[in-house]
Records
---
Amino acid sequence: MKSDICTLSANDIESLKKVLSETEKTAVYAALDKKQSGRLRLLAEELVEMLPSLLAFTAGEFWIDCNGKNFELHTTLTPNDSLTSEKRDELLKVSSSGKNAAATGIMAKIRLAATFMLIDYEKNAAEMPATTDFYHDGMGVNPYFPISSWSLENYRAKAKSEQGEKWDELEKSIIANIADDVLVGVEGKKVEIIVKKAF
């Protein structure tokens, strides 16, 4: 089952509220219990918190696919006319400086992975400093995207093997403790974020 599609806009705060109401409707439809519904809503809330900065230069859509108790929260981002080459250069410069890359929190890293893909990160990878290790640590292939994508599960596996600061950060993260995986990848001209959760 696919939920209704919510159109997202930085200028329309109500569109972000629709993400939460659509999540609640889907939880009812799937007959989730109170605890499961709460967890699904928490995942949607985490997405909503990071979207405004991404929607400043993209158009977005949100929907949920569910098959039994397997859920995927989908958010697609399509660069709009305001993402000029100058804006791309500016975003890359800020990212390269480490100001954004050093942001704490897993959601900040997921948002930054989406931003990197929107600014054609792969073409500029050689210019990126070591502060973007989180991006490389999460890269891999999966059946959702034709080219490589960033995965929370890949990042989690790398952090677990190192048992350092990255692992500590994951243990404090709501999304890392609830979601089975978060994927960020490119599909055509869109960047898609998929949050996966099975109950």
Note: The CA atoms of residues 155 and 198 lie 19 Å apart.
---
Amino acid sequence: MEVRIRAFRDEDLPTLYEISLRTGDGGGDATRLYRHREIIGHVYVGPYATLLPDLCLVAEDAEGVAGYLVGVPNTRDFEARQQAEWWPSLRRCYPDPGPLPDPAWDADAKRAHRIHHPEGVIPDAVVAEHPGHLHMNLLPRLQRRGIGSRLLETGYPLVRRAGAGHVHVGVNPGNTGGLTFWQRAGFAPIDLPADKDTGKAIWLGRALP
């Protein structure tokens, strides 16, 4: 079955939200974890596709869009745009669960906390040498078929032309398949100071080819 890599279209956004949900549990389906199905997409794909649509690619087969790649040339600049243009409206939709994370929170509360308190998620030590970042998700039917590599090959020039020289990714420690993929794609672990390593993500970076 042929898979086509193409530019994002506005009408793709609901499907990208669904992909984010269905890959949101360490690479597996997170549907059972959320009462608000859209909240994970609001955090992990909506702002990218909305604020930087030219750096968003999708992978489409005969059944429809089943994967995406988004990119950011400068993480701190993007965070500032999110603060001004993306989070305010969402904060009116989802109550703040509290200023400090609580291990007892469910998945919805954790994402709501990110909406209200997005600062500090990506450590300074990561963006110091790798200011840009990428994020990719593929549904199972596109995995292990070279589609992720094709997305990267198409996406690298877009992010580079936008101003990025080095990029990073964050991988859930439970997503062993994702970690293997990024390492094979030339991403190497980024060392963090011990007091900045929360264990919630594995950070990897590389220079753009």
Note: Strands lie at 4-7, 56-61, 64-72, 132-138, 166-171, 188-189, 202-207.
---
Amino acid sequence: MTNLYSIIKKPLFTEKGSNLKESENKILVEVAKGANKIEVKSAIEEIFKVKVEKVATINTNGKWKRQGKSIGKRPDRKKAVITLKKGEKLDFVEGA
């Protein structure tokens, strides 16, 4: 992957993610399915100008859902749990 902005898709705002951010200085983001840990680390460091200590990735399969007779599948996703170095801070929502 050449473009840094194609690696990082969006931040994930969940209750578990906010607890991780407050207690362990970790952030959750959704990343491209083909991205590896090294690419995710370099993209976060370049875009947000923070130092990353560790990256853990999680592949999640989409759930099968039905609505009446129709059946469909939600898309597969890849998430990354990014541990920032001590003293670093990253806030996606400023002033909230």
Note: The helical segments are 4-7, 15-24, 37-48.
